[in-house]
């Protein structure tokens, strides 16, 4: 029979296999971010897309949705971000006005709705990537 110390070491090694490192976290959260990006795109396109608009200088808002495997400051922390491009104009600012509204625009909360409706897909994508990288169930 193994000593308590050996049993604890074995348990610790099993648990350690299930905790993703920073590089794995980056891959896992990027899978979720890609799902959320797709939801942002669909919501933006269905609510705020003007067909036939000249896009030679500025993209449609829906076409400016991006997902990145870095945090908002550009650091590789294991987090991923989803948002709108800033160049050549700040699409995120426009999306904020359309989502929340202004004195002159009634907000339709399309981003909030996209986040709520995609939670299950985001978690499923992250879980699938987690299983692929760590080999199993977190429990």
TrEMBL record:
InterPro entries according to UniProt: HK97-gp10_tail (IPR010064)
UniProt superkingdom: Bacteria
Protein name per Swiss-Prot or TrEMBL: HK97 gp10 family phage protein
């Amino acid at each position: 029979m193994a000593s308590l110390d050996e049993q604890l070491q074995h348990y610790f090694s099993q648990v350690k296999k299930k905790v993703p490192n920073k590089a794995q976290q980056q891959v896992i959260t990027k899978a979720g971010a890609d799902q959320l990006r797709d939801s942002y795109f669909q919501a933006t396109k269905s609510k705020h897309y003007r067909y036939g608009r000249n896009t030679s200088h500025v993209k449609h808002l829906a076409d400016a949705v991006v997902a990145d495997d870095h945090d908002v400051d550009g650091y590789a922390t294991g987090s991923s971000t989803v948002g709108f491009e800033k160049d050549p104009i700040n699409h995120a600012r426009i999306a904020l006005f359309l989502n929340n509204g202004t004195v002159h625009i009634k907000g339709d909360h399309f981003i909030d709705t996209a986040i709520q409706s995609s939670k299950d897909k985001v978690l499923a994508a992250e879980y699938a990537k987690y299983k692929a990288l760590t080999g199993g169930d977190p429990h």
